[in-house]
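User: I'm writing a tutorial on reading structure tokens. Could you give me a worked example: one chain, its sequence, then its tokens, then a sentence or two explaining what the tokens reveal?
Assistant: Sure. Here is the example chain.
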Amino acid sequence: MNWQTSYQNNTQLIELTYSGSVTQVELAKSAQAALDLAQQHGTYKVMTDCTAIQAGHSLADLYFLSDWLITMKAHRLKEAVIMPTEAASSEMARFWETTCINRGLRVRVFDQREAAERWLLDSPSIN
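And here are its predicted structure tokens:
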């Protein structure tokens, strides 16, 4: 498994971390796990660390994942994505941001974890 989810008590954020090659199936499972944690803890702020991801999925996989989030009524979700270090994966992260924004989802990419956390914590979530 090339992903992990956890709930951070100190920040009340859902943490989703990817590493290596992540397939479409793993993307779907990780998204479901993050949504489950969000519902369990009553927080919809997600910190997604993609610094160590190396693709393994396609742009179409990301596109359909954003559609799935809409069907799951995940509009309360607010996701900060920390950019991958690999150039090709960085382009995928930007595509993810644009695709989600176009669907009315609050997703933003960041180069630094501190800026991502500030964005998540400083602005209110939608309840």
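What the tokens reveal: The radius of gyration is 13 Å. The first helix runs from residue 24 to 41.
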